[in-house]
Amino acid sequence: MIAFLWGGAVGGLNTLAVIEAGARVDEMRMSAAMTAIAFCYTLGGFAGPAAAGLATEMLSMHGLPMVAGAAALVVLAVWAVRRGAES
């Protein structure tokens, strides 16, 4: 159930990324920004399930929670680095 809710919450991140890019990026770089967003979203959609499947194969029932935890740690690390760079 948690994975279902998490998946629903993550679904809106692409829309939020496009909105933020539209607000922060000038017109000359907008195409590159949208391409980068689409690339990252597609890469995550491909690599996430592959990593979760591999981890589940290797670690049985502990694989999916470990991949989810690792993904959360990566997001928190990026957020902390970006937050430190802004101050």
UniProtKB/TrEMBL annotation:
Name recorded for this polypeptide: Major facilitator superfamily (MFS) profile domain-containing protein
Membrane-spanning segments: 33-56, 63-81
Keyword Membrane: yes
Highest taxon of the lineage: Bacteria
Provenance organism: Tistrella mobilis (strain KA081020-065)
Keywords, ordered alphabetically: Membrane, Plasmid, Transmembrane, Transmembrane helix
Lineage of source species: Bacteria, Pseudomonadati, Pseudomonadota, Alphaproteobacteria, Geminicoccales
InterPro entries xref list: MFS_trans_sf (IPR036259)
Keyword Membrane: yes
